[in-house]
Batch of 4 targets.
Target 1
Amino acid sequence: MKTKRLPEYLKKNLVLSGGVHDTKVMLRHKGLHTVCESARCPNLSECFGMSRATFLIMGDACTRACRFCSVDKGHPRALDPDEPRRIARSITELGIRHAVITSVTRDDLQDGGADHFYKTARAVKETSPGTTVELLTPDFQGNKDAIAHLLEAGFEIFNHNVETVPRLYKKIRPQAIYERSLDVLRFVKQQKHILIKSGLMVGLGETVPEIKTVLKDLKEAGCDIVTIGQYLMPTLKNIPVQAYLTHNVYEEYRRFGTGIGIRYVYAGPFVRSSYHAQEVMDGLTREPYLTRKM
């Protein structure tokens, strides 16, 4: 049965601080996109208020049509060669210590945009050498030469989301392949000594055993970090929520994931792949993160 009423614990207050306004003004001035805005993230005001943003490169039109996502679909424009420089300058101006950079999927490009990711990561490292960089990438259609090139950019975290359980792929993300995503994560772990991260949405009709199987698969693929958060319909055109999970289920997933050897499992209703990414990075050098009641 489809759940329609949003539980009280999933109602987040919108805070329109001066920091939110300033971040939006800077992004528009530089002609930059964020997944925070394109995906209608419920954490936007919190993150923008702290001068944080997850940059969305290679335009704002995606070549795939995942049913959970509100990013525009269609024919993307040519790559902007100046975008890496503007991203790097913005990260410096915002004072971001841990930068998260993602993209639309660009299946129209021979390398899937891997070289553009490379150039962006290099620009950030050259402009802000003290900033750690996390790249949240598409699967590049499994192009290992393109991925190997990207890995030479010298960043700290490679992030690629499996998003959901394999049974739901045809329904939720029909142009993606679960095993291909695992293979990408596995390949990166074999090639470079960097942190590997992946993320899942829940509430789409998956079962607890299915999520635990995915966690085992991610551990086998070499994941150090896994994020798990509640799927929320960004628009009425997206696939409906099937269930709202309670806090104890997230805690069960966290305990199971860390119990099988995943270094850091961040699970909770408002968790997104790049939410509190800086704290997650910091937490890897401290005690394991305990799921907060948000």
Target 2
Amino acid sequence: MTTRRSFLGRAAAPAVVYKFVKGAPALHAAAADMRFGFIGVGIRGMFLLEEFQKIGVKPVIAADVYDGHLTRAKEVTKDAIATTRDYRAVLDRKDIDAVVIATPDHWHKQMMLDALAAGKHVYLEKPMAWSIEQCLEIARAVESSKQKVQIGSGAGNSPESEKAREIVASGALGQVNHVRLENNRNNLEGAWVYAVPPDASPRTIDWQRFVGPSPQRDFDANVFFRWRCWWEYSGGVATDLYVHMLTQLHQVMNVEAARSVVAQGGIYRWKDGRTVPDFMSSLYEYPGFLASLSVNLGNAQAGRSMTVYGSKGTLLVGGRNTLVHTEEAVDRDVQRYGTNAWPAAMRQAYFAAKGNAARPVLAKPKEIVVTSGPSHQAAFVQSLVDGKPLRETAWEGHCAAGSAHLANVAYRAGRRMSWDAKTGEIKEG
């Protein structure tokens, strides 16, 4: 795995640094008048509640099926927020401008459709939904509504991704034929083995509301707090981590959705009763190039990165506001290996005709530093207040989540699978 450190380690001289400045927009004072409801205030939902509160909107009401989450919501808002176990109570509030949905995946579709029917703008946490069919249903519903919906996969709309897209579009990398993306972890938290609160019980958790449209099963606190580990509620590493990578890939490469994918994986590290794989590697086909994605929950050494390989150069998008661009060596067509079996005099004449040119050396990497822009959440508020374009539309969310789901379909079928993003049709081959 190539990392930013190994890229820069090849350079004998300091890297050339460029600046790409994108300042955060000043939110209009009207943001303070925006009233938000929150459906799901668990780990991610709590982060979103705190983030939106920092931006300046007013949190009005939160829904969750675990009492501890609701208690924490009151703490972070200094008791300014109402709480409920029933998400419909949030949608019934006439004084709510927008809702933030951050629940397990199997609830996304119904909550989204209900929110649109209630006339609410929506920030929907990724993945868009539990299946390709559900993602497409949401995308079509949003298209026919008047509400603004932003999907919460911010990796594809970061300053790094924007700069990378600019570099690829400029032709500086030449013909791109491969993009590689990885996300690797090796700890309990990274594998979704989250701590279970000591008060977790059928008294503090509304189990039936959690299960909802999924098959019924007996109460299990581990399932409730570690729901990403089971197919009934999640798409595992693909819909959690592939979605981030696919969103970024689609923006950087200016493509809409994958054409086909093959995928393999399994449960190697975390044999704790989960049904989704803890390692998955997939090869996606896009127009003109292939993309290899992998997630490993059993080794963290390679970390997280995106690398774009072109005929003229390579671009590493490693996060932390930094990209590394390394140009390919120029081929001077001085073939030492290819002429090794020639007679000595003939070979010497060949080199003389080539001007006795030495082999080309690798170009020095250039480090490109970008400046952080507004958060994904701030951009959503900006869109509501000033009509700015959404960072990630429902259709873009469908294309990213659908491509991730396609990898799961291929993995479980043991076949190469293709799809049509516009119709949702899936087929072998």
Target 3
Amino acid sequence: MSPPSLTSYLVLSAVLFAVGFFGVLLRKNTLVIYMCLELMLVASTLALVACSRFNGTMDGNVFVFFILTVAAAEVAVGLAIVVALFRKRQTIQVEELNHLRD
């Protein structure tokens, strides 16, 4: 059995990114939208690590460290926003959150 090639990693990354992208476009629940955004971040980190490994450098791994740091901060802020919206509106459905001035 031969080891996976760079192309297979990039195809997997593209599929994960597409699933996350269409999840953001099609879903109505804010928590699911945040999970799809995280899936898109994971897809980009997979592509960076795969390219870094096949090029023999550590550049992609350094970028992944910063991406994961930003993703952790994004999750904390995103969940705080979802909790605040739920306390104010008693729902997390996107179509019911269109009037934020009230």
Target 4
Amino acid sequence: MTTFLGGATASDDDTAPAPAEPSRDAPRVPTWVTVAAATRRPGRAPAPPRMSRIYLQLVTAAAVVFVAVAMAGGFASRTVAEREAVKDAAKTTDLLAESVVQPALRDTLLTHDPTAYAALDEMVRIRVLSPDVVRVKVWTPDGTIIYSDEPKVVGLAFPLDDDERAALTDGTTLAEISDVTKSENRFEQNGDKLLEVYRPVRTPGGSRLLFEAYLPYGAVSTRTGVLWRGFASITFTSLLLLLLLMLPIIWRLLDRVRAAQEHRVALLEHAVDASTDERRRIADTLHDGVVQELAAASFAVSGAAERAESDGRTETADVVRRAGAAVRGTIGSLQALLVDSYPPDLSSAGLVAALTDLADTARTPDIDVRLETTMGPTGLDAEGERLVYRVAQESLRNAIRHSTAAHIDITLELVGADVVLVVADDGRGFDVRPTFDEPRDGHFGVRVMGGLAARSGALLDVCSAPGEGTAWRLTVPRA
């Protein structure tokens, strides 16, 4: 390959170390700069979601909803069950206090009379204590326990809390989940929850006492199960029916979405085909009409110039020759426009043949364009070959228009699993970063090349500096 870029070939390694402290007047040594990195693999558009995956997501979402509803229903059922069990315990305690305990009270119980205590204890053990009532206590207003079916706490005093004082004072029945960690409940600390209900009772002489009963928490669990089964049967049945009703609707919607996608793809393909056909028609019309007529006019003008020269009309001959040169230049411009508007069919001609035609078209008496390649089939898909052709075309166009180069080398080779295109010229070069950061008018093509490479999953590098030429390197992975 011809050596450009300050003595380095276009395929020099961009990892070569740069001088540590270059002087201000030293020539700038160009290095490779990446201007576009791959954002996706070429030709691998995201596949549409499969129906099985969509239904799996739907079933997973339904399962999550079922679990959430189950958790919420369990919490709600336990809350309602506790509230209802507390109400039932209050009613039971009211009934026992009114019909059993209060009639068995004696005024002498306040003076710890054994006879009064024994009569109450007998009544409690016969008619109150049961699997539904596990503990009974009777308190004085000062917090002394004067009766309990557990004799060890009789005579002990504990301060009454606000709720107990309110029940004793206001004559109401209060029920709650018992706090078995209290010292007064140390003989109830068997690891089970209890419902605690207290309400006032009176002795025959009118003395007010606080009656307290402890009920097992199992009633709450039983009621929770009943409520949960009723809630679950209704809720899950409703959700299942809703899901079954939604499945046909979702099926139809997905079918319509798929049909819409296929229709949109078909329209896009039709639009592309129509655009291609229109460009082909315009190119054929220009080539067979205007270009041929201009070529005939060029021959006629050249003949007129020769006749004027032979007749001694030198000045007229010069004018006619300039007109002929202008016509030939117009023909070249039209031919380049035809290639731009309708590039060669790479699928039939092949990339190498298309690049050969491109180099031949760009070659002029002032610019030597050479193509070097040993490749046959590139192994790239249609998108990859179009990318290579367009980058080569844009690089050539930039070199011809802006670089004032005398030599342009195009190299196409296989490096590992990648197809690498290098377009290098010996022109005036440019500052890479300013050109890409703030492109001037007419220089947006370099950014277009970067965008094309990035979207196609390729890597585009440039190596240039003022006065050192320019090299473009495109690396395209083979699918």
